[in-house]
Amino acid sequence: MKIDVPLTAELRAIAEAVAVLEAAGFDGVQTVETGHDPFFPLLLAAEHSRRLELTTAIAVAFARNPMTLAAIGNDLNGYSGGRCILGLGSQIRAHIERRFSMPWSHPAARMREFVAAMRAIWANWYRGEPLDFRGEFYQHTLMTPVFTPKPSEAGPPRVFLAAVGPRMTRVAADVCDGMLVHPLTSVAYLRENVSPIIEAGLRERGVARAAFALSHAPFVVSGRTEESFARNRAAVCERIAFYASTPAYRGVLEKHGWGELQPELNRLSKQGRWQAMGALIDDEMLETFAVVGEPGAIVPELRRRFGGLVDRLTLDFEFADAAERGALIRALAGRAG
Known about the structure:
Blueprint: E1 2-6, H1 14-24, E2 28-31, H2 39-48, E3 53-56, E4 59-60, H3 66-80, E5 84-89, H4 93-99, H5 107-127, E6 133-134, E7 139-140, E8 158-163, H6 166-175, E9 178-181, H7 187-205, E10 213-216, E11 219-221, H8 226-244, H9 250-254, H10 261-270, H11 274-279, H12 283-289, E12 290-292, H13 295-306, E13 312-314, H14 322-333
Parallel strand pairs: 1-2, 1-13, 2-3, 3-5, 4-5, 5-8, 8-9, 9-10, 10-13, 11-12
Antiparallel strand pairs: 6-7
Helix pairs in contact: 1-2, 2-3, 3-5, 5-6, 6-7
């Protein structure tokens, strides 16, 4: 199992941060597209590290187009020597249409075509195949020499896809190199709803499961003091409530009989009542979606829940000091020393 860590978006802090993270033994760093661009930090991380894998988790695909992301991913993968993982997500209709002013429709079908279009572009750049991609949502039919990049030895990046529901999960299995499991995913949902779809898609595609990566960023609640534990617990409850308020994630709640909570959380979210939403997350729900315990219990529980089920975990071990991080990473990843 590989262990990744979220990377700060503060560009001036990247060089020092990646040196510390690489020395601690993390396998990779991940950026998220919230208030900052997800690629700039990874470019600096590539420059100041030697082995860390660099993942966008996620970059919003539908805020861009296949040509744009094909170029960015290719450049970053070449510069980093093959360490880039282009992690994509669809976002939701409101953000795509109202925040990005971009078209939204049929997200799973659109994402399948988006990835296929990028692969057609890379096939043109690396194998000289004519660029003649004509889909329902994207058309790429022009590539002249002046706009064709020189192929890098690293080749194009790996592509991971964030998915929750069965349709997008199947897209990940059919056309991607890995899947980014949403934090609001229980072990039962992962084992009974996600894994069978992935395995079926890979079988039909003729790809071994070992060649495909499931990457998960589970919630963790811990702390060295009662105060820090309570603060962390409240923050995680509010995050769970925030995600659970989105209709797209109702299926995960219904798996455990909590489907009727989603409309109430959605109502409160529209009123901006974030603390009230968090208060609706009881202990059973918290422990279903989060690993909860004292610092010494976290790694054993992570191994029990996710060992053999996922291939990468994203954790910051914020409850541990710098000296402890290395030992925790080695213990969780099953490494000697």
